[in-house]
Amino acid sequence: MNPARQMNPALTGQRGSFDGGAWSDMGAPYSWPVAIEGLTTCLWFDDQAVEAAQFYVDTFPGSRILSTSPITVEFELFGQVFLALNGGPVYTHSPATSFQVFCETQEEIDALWAALTSDGGQELQCGWCTDRFGVSWQVIPRVLPQMLSSPDSEVSGRAMERMMPMRKIVIANLFGYGCAVNIILWIADRNSTRLNSSHANISYAV
Predict the structure, then answer these.
(1) What is the pLDDT of residues 80-131, one digit of tens each?
(2) CA separation for the pair 63, 88 (Å, rounded)
(3) pTM to 2 decimals?
(4) How many C-beta neighbours within 10 Å does residue 142 have?
């Protein structure tokens, strides 16, 4: 029997199971107790950690610098903790990892897009962009994933077709002609969660 399982009989033996602060991975040659409270995203920069952290805190509302050291800056965006590291020129960012920011209104999209692409940022396709430090972002209206995942193939196909040529996403153009009426009908039909104008939030695409 696995020694870790002998130490902790509560382990279920199912792959990836978690119980009381211990993980078990059936079939692996080892298993050990861990205590994980969360994850912090570390962003590697050449020597711009302070500048980058300050840029993100200035760009996103309700954000703050938490702590600094000679080579790191810990900061918080929308309640999520990030660490900016001055690691030298060995590694650079790529679109293989990006941050999704879900916006409620076109005004939020316009303002965030302008901020992220300013001073050397780059506009990419389908709501993707890179900021001046090379970090990739997806600036997405919250209604877009609902349209793309619609069980109505006509709705999802039309949304995909209209999204593909866009750089910055324009909500009205996703709906085409009669957009104001279409948006109202869409939200009513999908019984969407009421849009909270206070904050977007961030998720990860890897």
Answers:
(1) 999 999 999 999 999 999 999 999 999 999 999 999 999 999 999 999 999 9
(2) 26
(3) 0.72
(4) 18
